[in-house]
Amino acid sequence: APSTADVEFPLDCGPQQALVVKKATGDLDGDGAPETVAVVHCDAPMGTPPDGVYVLTHNPGHTHARVVATLVDPRARNTVTGLTVTDGAVLATLLGYSTADVPSCCPDVKDSARWQWKDDRFVRSTPAAARSV
User: Fold this and answer.
1) What is the pLDDT along the chain (133 residues), one digit of tens a residue?
2) How far apart are CA 83 and CA 88, in angstroms?
3) In the chain, what are the domain boundaries?
4) Dist CA 120 CA 100 (whole Å)
5) CA torsion sign, 8 to 22 to 113 to 94?
6) Which of 37, 38, 55, 65 could pair covalently with 69 via S-S, beta carbons 3.0-4.6 A apart?
7) Which residues make beta-bridge pairs with 86?
8) Three-state secondary structure string covering 8-38
């Protein structure tokens, strides 16, 4: 499975490091080779930095894995509390905010998301209705 070491994540952390906080592995595109799904955020000294969710693949002949898809953009201000790869699909539990006015300490929306590889891209669906926390 692709390693998250030395990967350039599309995440602007300024002086902080990008920190991989969760990962899951599985064959997402049916090619027989596993992909790695990584939850990454900036290693901020305080607060709750938003998470990004990225899919990594490892091409033969390359020393490092590369990001091939962004499933959750950090700009969406989500925190990922659960991540699994099951039957070729990525499942995540996301905490988020109903409006921009909700303080970042206190997400008020809990959502489940599922991504499945289809027609050369990841298609998101929601396995269950979003509900308030």
Assistant:
1) 888 888 999 998 999 999 999 999 999 999 898 999 999 999 988 878 899 999 999 877 777 899 999 999 999 999 999 999 999 999 999 999 999 899 888 899 999 999 999 998 999 998 655 455 5
2) 13
3) 18-132
4) 33
5) negative
6) 55
7) 89
8) CCCCCCCCCCEEEEEEEEECCCCCCCCEEEE
